[in-house]
């Protein structure tokens, strides 16, 4: 079983708040990814990293930011949450071809 | 040219039947084609994958058929079971960075 963790699993927050979604993996993978997914729908890549101090924006425009200071940790931050940010956020990591996913964070912005 | 088109959007199959999900791509540089399975409340997990040097790969009840000339690949689930009910995603990537281009997903329901 993949060792990739996301916290919190569920978050309900008011508009304008700053939030950080945590993602950690214990597999030593260099590559990490953040996806946005409405339940059961298409995955949209919002950020990725190929290693420490390397981050890139994905295909989906996002108002979030990420950092990669340690190999195992890839947090995603929203400076000012809005209702349009309501979605599920999935973190994944990979060494080669297979991506291992965390359980996701279900975010609701009121 | 980067898209992967997946069909159908949803599929209902009787228990014991064959489930077939199709994907098509345009970019001939793609060289890795995985299928992921996602249950509600979970992240996707790799089910089976194929490279274009073979036309078919089988793992248990799951088979990928790959047609390089038609730029299509499909997932076949034999003897479908209620536990197979999930959303299935095809994807494609090229080169060593393995950044995946995802299909839109197929919600599969297996009726008992």
Notable traits:
heterodimer; A: 110 residues; mainly beta; 7-stranded mixed sheet; 4-stranded antiparallel sheet; 0% helix; globular; B: 112 residues
Description:
The complex is a heterodimer of chains A (about 110) and B (about 110). Chain A has about 110 residues and is an all-beta fold. Chain A is globular, with a radius of gyration of 13 Å. With about 110 residues, chain B is mostly beta strands. Chain B is built from no helices and eleven strands. In chain B, strands 2, 4, 5, 9, 10 and 11 form a six-stranded mixed beta sheet that branches. The mean pLDDT of chain B is about 95. At the A-B interface, strand 5, strand 9 and strand 10 of A face strand 5 of B.
- Share of helical residues of chain B: under 10%
Q: What order do the SSEs of chain A take from the amino end to the carboxyl end, as H and E? A: EEEEEEEEEEE
Counting H and I runs of at least 4 residues, what is the number of helices of chain A? Answer: 0
Profile the largest sheet of chain B: 6 strands, mixed
In short:
The complex is a heterodimer of chains A (about 110) and B (about 110). By secondary structure, chain A is mainly β.
Give the helix/strand layout.
The complex is a heterodimer of chains A (110) and B (112).
Chain A: E1 4-7, E2 10-13, E3 19-25, E4 31-37, E5 44-51, E6 54-57, E7 64-66, E8 76-78, E9 87-94, E10 99-101, E11 105-109
Parallel strand pairs in A: 2-11
Antiparallel strand pairs in A: 1-3, 3-8, 4-5, 4-9, 5-6, 7-8, 9-10, 9-11
Chain B: E1 4-7, E2 10-14, E3 19-25, E4 33-38, E5 45-50, E6 56-59, E7 62-67, E8 72-77, E9 86-92, E10 101-102, E11 106-111
Parallel strand pairs in B: 2-11
Antiparallel strand pairs in B: 1-3, 3-8, 4-5, 4-9, 6-7, 7-8, 9-10, 9-11
